[in-house]
Fold Anaphase-promoting complex subunit 2.
Amino acid sequence: MEESAMEPDSVEMSGSGPNPGVAEAWETVTAALVSPVSSGSEQSLSDLLALLNDQGLGRLLGSWLLETLQMRLSSCVVPEFWSGLKQPENEMEEKDRVWVLLTAFRTLLDRLEPFLAGLEKLGAWQDEGRGGLCGPGSKALKQRAFTTIRALLLFSPAPVLQERVLEFYSRTFSVYMNREGGSEDATEAPDGPEGGACRGCWVPVQQCWCQQALEHLQELSHILSKLQLLEWVSSEAVTTILHKLIEMRMEQLCRGEYERSFLLEFQEWLELVLGWLAKVFASEVDGDAASLPVAPGGLGVQVVPGGGSVLKQWRCHMHQFFCRIYVNMRIEELFSIIRDFPESKAAIEDLKFCLERTNQRQQLLTSLKSAFESRLLHPGVHTSDILTVYISAIKALRELDPSMVILQVVSQPIRKYLRTREDTVRQIVAGLTGDAEGCTDLASELSRGDPVTLEMQDSDEEGNDPEDWTPDPTDAMPDKMGSKRRSSDIISLLVSIYGSKEIFIDEYRGVLADRLLQQLNYNTAREIRNVELLKLRFGESHMHYCEVMLKDMADSRRINSNIREEESKLSEEEQPPLPLSAIILSSEFWPTLKEEKLELPPVVCQAMEAYTHRYEKLKAMRTLSWKPHLGSVTLDVELEDRVLTNLTVSPIQAATIMYFQEKSSWTLEELSVKLGAPKELVHRKLALWQQQGVLREEAGGRFYVVEKGSSKEKLDRGVMLIDSDEERDSNTATQSEQREEKLQLFWAYVQAMLTNLDTMTLERIHTMLRMFVDTGPVVTEMDVNELEAFLQRKVRDHQLIMSGNVYRLPKSN
């Protein structure tokens, strides 16, 4: 090694002129610092150091050595390092590129070792106080030297360094995992030759250099550690490799797989990866490795104090990155995970574990709300499907977040959207009573019998023990409900969509009425069970009307039995023309029934009058008001070549076919007049008899009886002739129809107020209605916006005039 650059001719001696003794002492001491061979005895060095100290030059030795190091680095060491590293890589194989990388760092160490040894020696003299020398010591001097080395070497590193280090570390990782991890990690190696290739270095087995690669790794780690460049050179490459491999492994194993947990499997794999990291940072671990136990839970990886803290940091980093990537993946799939719950419970539990260790709750909230809005809340999804996903979300998210904050936030769009669907309440009630197809969750929830609690209801019992109070997460919505008061009960959450039990009770009354009116045998066992379960949920007072409805069914069965028994005692001449059974309703307790005009044939009217007469004999001071369009009729149809027996049809369909006994052909207008029903309704009901081959329509809108039918048509006939439209029709008025009726009541009040006061603003009309109209819950439900929409409808119908934000009635001509 050349030493001309280390001559001290640039140092200016103190004093008025040159001092040959001091100059000689300086040359001797500086030569001893940078020369591997000691010149002169220890005593002579001490004397020379004392001389330099006397002249005030001892304190300059450290600065001189560091400045000389800096000059040497700038002038030749750093350029030489980059020149050696940037050899044409296209002409070399991977093994040769590794050798170039290792050679560059070997040369760097060779060039810097004399300076590092000199700093060590100078620090030792300072620590000993030799010749009166004092200073910061070897540790501080070397730290300054390493800072200078890093600053000059890595200030603006060329990409080739990270490329070579990344390539080399990737290869050593593949070699290590092939040896320690077995075949399961073989897919993580780059593509290579298929046959007769080493799974670690992907070259023919005869040319395998796996062992050599691990030896090179050990040597490189030693060099970098000695120069304190290990973290600076290795960290970026190691981080890139780990992140890429964790992402690849997670995509291969976890994507779309929700039914099993991956945490333990990844924990074992990460501990195996830590073994490779121990080799990368081996020099920092070597100091204490001899006396170390195996780390708990690890797979033979030794984690040590001091240098082992590096491995602890990398383990923490890997676990943190795994949790973050896992949460990112599961957030993307959370809609599907919720939809598949409870089969996906393992994925929810893993997500909960990882989410607690990352700061990604807000990301989850935003993503899940967006997924619900784009995939669920649009007209193409049936209401029952929305409710099914919402119920699954309640179950899954209360597992994920027992405080229910995530559910509260992400379910707001669902709850708001369900309020806009007219059939939401009916679908919920159908689920509660077990009528919804494929939805048994609500029926099983109802069987538990827990009382319904609305979220806006305060609990006096909560908060008695201040020690049990815990604050909500920061992303909780600002409301009065704490985590304990926030309900996790499915039925309570569904009922709270509307904030009123009465809406559901009224809807259930409608469903119960439909089911009871379709009964042909008065069997109410199932309905009684449902009512008893609903009483546990909603309270007995709310279910009183339903109990009366069930009592009406029992009374109707008894009354029909009594009337039948009385009829059986009559002579044949006194027998009614048709056997008739009736369901007798207490009108005040049943929901509003649909009103349709229908005039039945005289023979049916006679049977109804006879039934009414006998009922009046049984129940003094009471009579019956018939609903001729409701019910069902069982009849036989005799044709020339066939007989259709035990057909069950609606009253209007039965009346229609009965009129064909009088004559064989009718026009639509004639039937409409006879039945007292609109032509459109009659035509729809006639379509059923046409489908069954009993009637046919010819030109001019006239219908004829088909006395003779083909054999194929006979085979295709069914015995239940209630068409699909008839099955879907409800016997009770819908909530929108009932609401429209009550809005018309409002209209009467509005007309009266405007007649007396001439003009009124919207706000005053609303206030007056709330003050004077007492029609139950509808008043409280009707806000200003709804009233405004109703009044605007009247304006469009020319029943109101709006001018200057006030309403008035139009002047009559």
In short: The radius of gyration is 46 Å.
